Amino acid sequence: MTEFTPPSPSAGSGIPAPAADPTSPPTATATTVTATYDHALRVAPAWWRGALAIILLAGVFLVLSVALSVAAIAVDLLTGAYSLDDLTSGAITLTPWSMLANNLALAAMWPVAVLLQWWLFGVRPRWMSSVEGRFRWNWVGRLALVIVPVWAVYVGGSFLLSPLDAVVIDGTVIAMVAVVILTTPLQSAGEEFGTRGLIQRSAGSWLANPTAAFVVGTLVSGAIFAVAHLAGDPWLIAYYFVFGASLSLTARGTGGLEAPILIHVTNNVLLLVPTALMSQTDQVFQRDAGTGGPFMLVPMAMCILGAALSIWWARRNRVVTVAPLPPSRVAAPVPAIDTRASGPLL
């Protein structure tokens, strides 16, 4: 028996087209390509962009660091903080001016990083803050309620278990405390925009696989972060790498730089203010061989705890951690994905 097949409606045939069934699925569903924070610069995946971004960031920092350090040394010599003989013999101490020069050079990495991203990747500066294209201050405030008390207990306990010097308030101490409070948050933010914001994501842009990109980006940014601290002790080198890697994980798990910056600022300010009051700031920058030891496992554990708390709190607060790739003026449009044929995105 032959089954009758009705003729297909065509223009001018006089046969009306059947009404669409509103309950039937569409023939194809286009979904915008999304990414985590660390993989967002894959929107412009030319290998040379990431390489050039890292090289230029390091070069600009080196130039600024030398220039500001020379200026600080000149001011210290003119004000009598130390003599030319002290300088040539290396018998100088950290002064408020040299601390200010260090912090300003690192703080400058914030605008340098976002401008390099804009120039090389065509992604506007606001997209370096988070996957939502803005710095989420409300999220920072909620996270501070968790991070700051935990870090205060950690730092307070560390000082109570260490030898304490007398607090002598003089002009130098007041100036050092002012520099720490006013510029250390900018220094910490500059390091995060430079390392986790530009270096991590530049290296991550080299690979299409998100997991591989995160691993490579974390290794590259963590290694540069550790080397940049000029530590000669293996324990300190390991600590700086763990510090950097944990903040890379934090940025990925929270969708932006807000949590890494908060942890970095809290750690540095709470450590440096007491040392400045006790005129021990020099000790913080002593990183020669033998300075560290197994006790560095405690701050390493704190770094990991900070990452875990941040990611957990982000999930509790439903913070956006994955979003569409940011718009780029140099990248070709990313093709949509047919989820009907390939299945849901994981």
TrEMBL record:
It comes from the Bacteria. GO terms for molecular function: endopeptidase activity; metallopeptidase activity. Signal peptide: none annotated. It holds the Pfam family Rce1-like. The chain crosses the membrane at residues 51-84, 104-122, 143-161, 167-186, 207-231, 237-254, 261-281, 293-314. InterPro entries: Rce1/LyrA-like_dom. Residues 177-270 form the CAAX prenyl protease 2/Lysostaphin resistance protein A-like domain. GO terms for biological process: CAAX-box protein maturation; proteolysis. Keywords: Hydrolase, Membrane, Metalloprotease, Protease, Transmembrane, Transmembrane helix. Residues 10-28 have a biased composition (Low complexity). Residues 1-28 are annotated as: Disordered. This is CPBP family intramembrane metalloprotease.
